[in-house]
Model the fold of this input.
Amino acid sequence: MSTFTIASIPREELLAPGHRMCQGCGAAIVMRHLLKALGKNIIVAHATGCVEVTTTLYPETAWRVPWIHVAFENAAAVASGIEAALKSLKKKGVLSYEKRVKVVAIGGDGGTVDIGLQALSGMLERGHDVLYVLYDNEAYMNTGIQRSGATPLYAWTTTTPAGSVWRGEWRRKKDIIGIVKAHGVPYVATVNFAYVTDFYAKLRKAAEIEGPTFIHAYSPCVPGWRYEPHLTVKIAKLAVQTGIWVNYEIEKGTFRVTTPVPKRLPVEEYLKVQGRFAHLTKEEIETIQKLVDEDVEYINKLAGATVIGPVEKK
Amino acid sequence: MGKLVPLSGNYAVAYAAKAADVDVVAAYPITPQTAVVEKLAEFVANGELHAEFLHVESEHSALSAVVGASATGARVFTATSAQGLLLMYEIMHIASTMRLPIVMGIATRAISAPINIWCDHSDFMAAADTGWIMFMAINAQEAHDLVIAAYRIAEDPDVHLPVAVGYDGFIVSHTIEPVNIIEKEEALRYAPKRVTWFTLNPEKPVTMGSLASPEWYYEFRVQLQKALESSAKVITTAFREFKQHFGREYREVDGFYTDDADVILVTMGSTTGTAISYAEEARKAGLKVGVLNVRLFRPFPEREVLKHIEEAKVVAVIDRALNPGSSFVGPLYSDIAVTAFKKGLDIPITNYVTGLGGRAVLKSHLDTIVKHAYGLIGKRMRDIDTHYAFVGVRE
Done:
């Protein structure tokens, strides 16, 4: 679907170097390209989290766009207020921006699917012209890898350790897209930066559409997922190739997979490169495979075709 | 001059926000504040107020949204009570240290548990250390006037702080009184809209609310303290200008019969009215009672308070709130006692906690307090065994 090519990626860096994100940080890649995709005419409201603390250590900042952080659970509410202020001040002739200023809320998985869910719901329901970006690294990484509602099944975290009784996280990842979609918003999409043109096209579309839009961005975490920093993009790609992550969009209710995967790799390929799954037994891996298969079946049903193929036998 | 209209305290506050031509309102309904939100919604619905009205899903989001709007350069308003204020508590600290000129009305109410919708000052006092400028109105007129003065003060380039205007739940919020309404043109002449603080603007990007390490955090907090201290001067100026514009005079504190008083009752909010009426009666009966009304609670007006109490024989501080387990019991008492102590005022300063959860503060209660206080005349603080008492409670 991509209307975007690598060559058309803007050269200007709106996320300045010198920030303190980890080597190989997935969220750093998300932020860099998010800013390139959206450009300068935005105002960012950021939830507390990894990116917030690592990019704005006073008196420095990595943000070359207007940016505000207030607290953990309220990025969507702060963004709502910014959007309302822009609207009000434009109507009163106080602000005279020629270009449309898009308000962008950014939160991690904890700040979005857990503590910030209520504020997010309010923002979506009220119909604010805000793009909400969730960068999902699947746990509370800023405080040191505690499970969140977005932590996947069997993942080791410091609060779901693998012991003789517990086998890592025992609940499945919260369906945030389903929750957001239920608010009847005009555009919802998942993005994975290993598929960079898809990433750009969706962020641009989400920003252009009037009203609340939502981007769920896959965001690997080196210390939290326990892998070597050079593997970030490889893991991101494996997530799509194994079908554990699917790139899709829902535009005005129409569902479309944007990265078809004719033949899937076994999910074990994805799990085995991450230390957070190192304790898994053969049976547990089979359980995850079964769940991925079911999810893929559901996706194909929504798509009305086999866009994600079967697992390729070795 | 404006026109005289019968208004409840809540409506008086809503009319003030309208007169201030606020750009963004975000509020969540809670008793006894609800009528403010309703009235503002009506103003917007009728085109009398051109503002974006955010039907937020909680008080936490109400304050968060006005933080965002204020940071974008809008004049903002919100209002709440009790549990709502406690839900805002986290963001109150952030709003003040981020130096955003937000104005909030607080229809004061008891905090849970037990759940209770009636008046006391537990909510207001819980916000006392959040870095906001805090006023307590004694009636609807004051609530109206102080909200307008609040914009003049909050947005002053030498202040840039949020301001809360408290007014007693039900007693003021729901009592209809004649209120001299300030019209928009007059309000804007007194408190013109000038955005003098940093705003979120793509043409001039700034980062707000960043992480401050031990190398920097301390300075931010000290700046907040300094800002509150220096706001005192602006508040005095704003009150002087208010008198010039509208004829009504406000001070940080008011003394009634304090000049020759043996016992001074220190009060806040609607209790002040009861206390003045009581003092007049008591004086006829030969008791030299004075009343000190504390209108400005933060920054605490020590100098003004001292002027009134330094000649007294006993100072009886009435609190409609409780700091359980503290050395001072009542929050207003702690400020009065420390103020006196700093100047070596060695007279009995006692605390009477009364009127919790909407229990009426009656003249008979005040009489009990004054009689008790009279018994302490001539003593020093160290001679008193118990410095506090509950008045009007079942034992």
Notes: Chain A touches chain B through 48 residues (CB under 8 Å). The radius of gyration of chain A is 19 Å.
